[in-house]
Amino acid sequence: MTAPLPPARPHLTRQQLFSGFFRAGIMGFGGVLPIIRRVMVDDRRWLTQTEFNELFSLCQSLPGANVVNLSFAFGAREGGASGAVAAVTGLLSAPVSIVLVLAGLYARFGGLAPVRHALLGLAATAAGLALGSALRIASPILTVPRNMLLAAAVYGLAFGLHISLPLIVLGMLPLSLALSWRLVP
Question: What is the rounded distance in angstroms from the CA atom of residue 115 to the CA atom of residue 171?
Fold first, then answer.
């Protein structure tokens, strides 16, 4: 006998999708992934950390920007084509507007030393956000020894042996799938 399924969660409205992804887009300027994870997992509880990791993993395998793929896939899951449009529009509308304004300002003032120094500080902040997000996403994955070995192998291939990412994916994807099918915890 199987356990009863939990009650289905109602789908999110287009307004909820737009506002959630708009918030992530405006707050995560220069580093959207940590913010989008916080909005979807911690604040709004749309997904668990595991569900987020699974959806984000899928979106990383698709061409294009990972967070845009994530917003599209989640929006489509929640509200079909109009949900996908609402999520992507919410995610991109503020950053695109801000980039256009900043591009105009940079064209005019980008040669000034204080502006160049400020941009170096912003780059360091963005790198810290990316590292923090990577560690947060990796924490539940790295509780399984097999996953730790796979992550170490990918790291070694990429940074130790300087093998290109497409070749790493071609080699590691079949291996990880085979291990998952044989050793499901």
Answer: 44
